[in-house]
């Protein structure tokens, strides 16, 4: 059981503050997703965790069975780097055999395992093709297999879905879910919000090296969009102002003559809202509208950019004065 904790870690490249005082904990068996726009600091963070670079500040604490570790044990993790690293002039089979043996898998077992994974990811007929002949997506799948072959306790995947078509993205999602069920811990970075929403137990949203939000989807929703919105359909037409006048309503958006989006007042309960609505009209629909991760992400990154701009302007005014 591998515990990973980052405490206030920072990393700069010259003038670029790539990661700024970021903290998080990854529990064993969890899928932890790093999200953020290009250049947010996701790969920089991952490179520190796998020990390719060191934090300028802060610390990374690793523990296995309650024993502290100075670095991740070689065979306990699989790492899919951003700049993929297999041999292009070797066949799929040769690449995977080499990696498998390097990770200590028995030669005879390895043959079967390679075939099993390649069958699962539709690569069986490519086994004896040179990697360089494969499409980008198929090369990506070979890279993924090279990370999971030795059944590591921890998978660190920098953009595992990039270059994959929707069918293969779905296959990888199913595989990652299965691995989690078997107890594997997964740290991944991704830009595919719809997939992350279905996969991640916990997420860290970064922008320009800083934390924007962290937690489960429900916690992130609570942090970024605490208002409760409902879709309300009425059996008859009603003027928007009649709904707005209800004590449990803070905002109303009219969608059609009989359909509205209603925001619950902060101090009101859902049952109060329902009571007040049914007192003025017959309801044909009443359902909660929950913002998806994509929507939350765009709003949060946009707000964070505005915040950074205004603090930069404040600083430059301060400096001018
Ligand atoms: N080796 C390096 N030397 C100089 N600057 C770097 C280096 N690696 C990253 N950076 C800079 O650090 C910042 C964070 O980059 P990083 O690659 O960590 O972002 P990312 O979130 O992984 O982006 P993407 O989604 O585009 O892969 C960027 O401004 C990048 O230009």
TrEMBL record:
Gene3D superfamilies, per database record: P-loop containing nucleotide triphosphate hydrolases (3.40.50.300)
GO molecular function, one term: ATP binding
Ranges of residues in domain ABC transporter: 4-233
The keyword Flavoprotein is assigned to this record: no
Keyword Transport: yes
Pfam families, per the entry: ABC_tran (PF00005)
Keyword line: ATP-binding, Nucleotide-binding, Transport
Name listed for the protein in its UniProt record: ABC transporter ATP-binding protein
